């Protein structure tokens, strides 16, 4: 099944199944109760996940785990939304922490003053 045919919640459930209980528990700590319920139900309804599907859904997993993903400086890495804002933020924060730890990335000034002032 093509990765595009899964909903965001299904992709998130596959991500959590693949990461295993310990890493999934770390992610669940950052979610709201209703998001946890929705994901838990989806995980329970997921019968089996093929290795190919796991690979398709987990395009960002190596980044989250801090593994090298590019083979040259000309390559770019992008991520797509997994469907739940809190999960997206958790993944983005893990990516940021790994980039800082590895001394990667470029600081970019987005605005002169915060938009909320």
Describe this structure in words.
This protein starts with 7 loop residues before the first helix and ends in a 15-residue tail after the last helix. The radius of gyration is 16 Å and the shape is globular. It has helices spanning 8-19, 21-28, 33-45, 51-57, 61-64, 85-102. The protein has 117 residues and is mostly helical. The protein has six helices and no strands. Helices cover 53% and strands 0% of the residues.
Entry summary:
The chain is mostly helical and 117 residues long.
Note the topology.
Layout: H1 8-19, H2 21-28, H3 33-45, H4 51-57, H5 61-64, H6 85-102
Helix pairs in contact: 1-2, 1-3
List the keywords.
117 residues; mainly alpha; 6 helices
Q: SS-based structural class? A: mainly alpha
The helicity comes to 40-55%
Order of helices and strands: HHHHHH
Number of strands: 0
Give the end-to-end Cα distance, rounded to a whole number of Å. 46 Å
* Fraction in beta strands: under 5%
Radius of gyration: 16 Å
Low-confidence stretches: none
* Biggest β-sheet strands, sense, barrel: none
Average residue pLDDT = 78
Number of helices: 6
Shape: globular
């Amino acid at each position: 099944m093509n990765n595009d045919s899964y909903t965001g919640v299904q992709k998130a459930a596959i991500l959590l199944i693949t990461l295993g209980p310990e890493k999934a528990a770390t992610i669940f700590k950052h979610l709201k109760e209703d998001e946890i319920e929705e994901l838990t139900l989806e995980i329970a309804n997921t019968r089996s996940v093929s290795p190919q599907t796991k690979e398709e859904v987990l395009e960002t997993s190596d980044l989250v785990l801090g593994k090298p993903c590019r083979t040259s400086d000309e390559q770019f890495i992008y991520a797509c939304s997994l469907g739940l804002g809190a999960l997206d933020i958790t993944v983005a924060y893990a990516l940021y922490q790994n980039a800082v730890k590895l001394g990667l990335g470029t600081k970019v000034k987005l605005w002169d003053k915060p938009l909320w002032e």
